[in-house]
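User: Mind token order:
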Amino acid sequence: MTTILGNLDMKRKYSVFLGNVGPCSDRYCAAYAAPLGIEALFERAASIDLLGGVDLVATPGLLGDVALVKRCLASTGLKVVSVAVDHFTQARWGKGSFSSIDPALRRAAVDATRETMDLAVELGCSLVTIWPGQDGYDYIFQADYLRERGWFAAGVKEACQHNPAVKVTLEYKLKEPRTHCYVNTVGTAILLVKEVDEANCGVVLDYGHALLGHENPAESVALLHRYGKLLSHVHINDNYRSWDDDMIVGSVHSLEYLEFFHWLRRTGYDGWMTIDQFPYREDGRDAVAESAAWLDALEDVLDRADPSEIDRVLQLKDGVAASKLARKLLLNR
């Protein structure tokens, strides 16, 4: 599918976290279906026509099977879009990675990031994602907010300097697994990137994380653009705003997605959109395919829209005019 945006001819870039096309665990059940190996996961991802890429997580298992990953990439034609540093699945990070009070663990967090950056290059990828889900706190009087944030910024800065050609992106989230995450909102992420002050440091906007933080994802896109064109990657899913439910794209916030896509286009985002969802009880492959179909359909709506009409309505700052525009876009009425 090719989208015409003015004079810009851009193939839509949809990806998926590899594990999301297979069975996923929740807090109570390790999996609702039999586990799948790397080859099977690649085959399932490749069977979804709208997908052109995969995002990987540099878990010990994947690091031990890089040769197999390369063979799967060659056989499926999929591209590695990003590689996430595994700062969240291993017990050693339970009390933090870059912000750990243990200097040896802080050093290990930097080293793991460097290793992931090298792996990304080896796989033909120039984007590394840091989701510091274990960096934060759970209880009152448990954390030194100033000192630990300082450690965090210093560690990310050192990692960025390892290879300026690799983009290091920070994914923010309000909570989970900690009750309070240090990189928790779009504003905090912007401040942190400014403190790191390295050209290859940016931000991942996860649509569901923005919802969880009571943000308007479209406004978050605009903020990241305004304060330094910091948006480097996008994760796509949906939820009810009370938890990071990681549901099928557009299944809850269809209308808000249209404004989100408008602002991605207006601010010139030309990166990938990675489906990041946890289809616990649905078949993973089918749920991801449905998300890709929703993405494509919603983007088609924007293709048919007149950007100048949208901009005209924005200048009016009128709620009724905005509602009329939304109804026209979504229902063509």
In short: Residues 11-304 form a domain with the TIM Barrel fold (CATH 3.20.20.150). The first strand starts at residue 2 and ends at 5. Residues 1-10 have pLDDT under 50 and may be disordered. The radius of gyration is 20 Å.
